[in-house]
Amino acid sequence: MNTPACTDLKVLDLVPFGQTGGEARFFALRLERPQWADWKPGQFVMLRPAGWALDMLWARPFSICRISARDLVIFFQVVGRGTARLAQLRTGDVVHVWGPLGNAFAMEPDTPTLMLAGGIGIAPFIGYAHTHSKPWNLWMDFGHRMPLGCYPFESINEKIMADSHHEEGPEDLSRFIETMGRRMREFRDQNGLVLACGPTPFLRTVRSFALEYGVRTQLSLETRMACGVGACLGCVCRTTERWPDPARAGGNVQTCTQGPVFWAEQITFDDETAAPPTAADAPVQACER
Fold first, then answer.
1. Which residues of the chain have pLDDT under 70?
2. Is 27 helix (H, G, I), strand (E, B) or coil?
3. Which residue from 200, 202, 199, 196 is spatially nearest to 173, judged by alpha carbons?
4. Which residue in 27, 81, 98, 142 is a FRET match for 61, CA 20 to 30 A apart?
5. pLDDT at position 285, please?
6. pLDDT tens across 58-67, in order?
7. Axis crossing angle, helix 200-213 with helix 170-189, rounded to the nearest 10
8. Phi, psi of 127 (to 5 degrees)
9. pLDDT at 283
């Protein structure tokens, strides 16, 4: 893995996905390809357009969606002031990019692998599906609240087998949770691997199933970050007694440097309880990263 670097990249284009209330709120941002020696699906970047000047000091973190020979693609939803300003970028604008940051999802080509995505959590799985050497071993279940056209689902479905689950009411969410549990049991029986990305309530439910069924599971946390290098301590998460470093077991670690991908049994969520997951526990919604 190469050392993270800060570079200035020009915007190639900004493509809207779907419509919500007549206004596009989902976008694929295409930047020039950075001169990185390497990157891996699950890593992220910190973005700060040059045009922000002193108006907005902090960069914003985003999962790397895909990197090709021509471009770096970031998929995002407008959910706050930072992403609203990103949605105003124009071709030729300059963006300061710091990355690639964090660790990556495990990639085991010969292992049946289940990808669980909630909302904007689909983003890192685009690159995962497109760079996997044996995509026939992959399956995705994707839960979403907005219409499917708001997300780059077709980019996944053209490479691997995938199902989408549109949440329009509580009964839809209940069915999706049941599907996740059933699918995780199936992959456990195949000695498989489960990867999940989405909002915290969604990940909490996945973690609950992972511990209950004993299936190897990684979670990519959507945590607010300011620096991306572990200096500000604003993105910490709590570890369990299973953390590999005994000195930090039961303590806090930075998501940006120790994650964002963690094994399910090695971290915990502060507000989780011993109660089984219910429909109210796992809203499948998009969160700004």
1. 1-2, 19-24, 271-289
2. strand
3. 202
4. 142
5. 34
6. 889 999 999 9
7. 40
8. -65, -35
9. 35
Please state whether the peptide bond connecting residue 276 to the residue before it is cis, i.e. omega within 30 degrees of 0: no
Q: What is the C-alpha end-to-end distance of the chain, expressed in Å?
A: 22
**CA-only gyration radius of the chain, Å:** 18
Structure tokens at 213: 């069924």
Strand, helix or coil for residue 14: strand
CA quadruple 167, 152, 36, 84: dihedral sign: negative
Other beta carbons less than 10 A from residue 193's beta carbon? 22
pLDDT at position 274 is: 36
Rounded to an integer, what distance in angstroms lies between the CA atom of residue 39 and that of residue 187? 27
AA letter at 43? Q
CB atoms within 10 A of CB 274: 5
pLDDT at res. 271: 57
Q: Which residues contact 196 (CB under 8 A, 6 or more apart)?
A: 115, 116, 117, 118, 121, 202, 203, 206, 217, 218, 219, 220
Question: Where does the chain have alpha helices with state H?
Answer: 81-86, 123-131, 153-157, 170-189, 200-213, 255-258
pTM for the full predicted model = 0.91
Quick one: tokens of 203?
């990940």
pLDDT at position 133 is 96
What are the DSSP E strand ranges found in the chain?
5-17, 26-32, 44-49, 60-63, 66-67, 71-77, 94-101, 113-118, 138-144, 161-166, 193-197, 216-220, 236-239, 252-254, 261-263, 267-268
